[in-house]
Amino acid sequence: MENDFHLGHLVRDELTRQQQTVAWFARQINCERTTCYDIFERKYINAEQLEKISIVLHHNFFRDLAEYEESIINSVEKNPR
């Protein structure tokens, strides 16, 4: 199964959906703009940082990850080797 889940892209997409700038986002999570671009390229983000991002963007990225993992589990259960 191809792993197309990418937290950084989800964060970037949510920021765009909310029409917020990277500069605004950087101020909210207390980092440099260049760090934000690095975050957008990360497939996974550590829990502490993801919690801060979820709060700032009012979006539960943990739920997104859990739903993705649940879909993988269901797929494996339906198609055992």
Which terms summarize this structure?
mainly alpha, 69% helix, elongated
Helix content bin: 55-70%
CATH superfamily: lambda repressor-like DNA-binding domains
Quickly count the domains: 1
Name given to the CATH architecture: Orthogonal Bundle
Task: Explain what you see.
This protein has 81 residues and is mainly alpha-helical. The chain has a single domain, classed as lambda repressor-like DNA-binding domains (434 Repressor (Amino-terminal Domain)), CATH 1.10.260. It contains 5 helices and no strands. Helix 2 crosses helix 3 (33-40). The longest helix has 18 residues, at 61-78. It starts with 6 loop residues before the first helix and ends with a helix.
How would you summarize this macromolecular structure in one to three sentences?
Helices cover 69% and strands 0% of the residues.
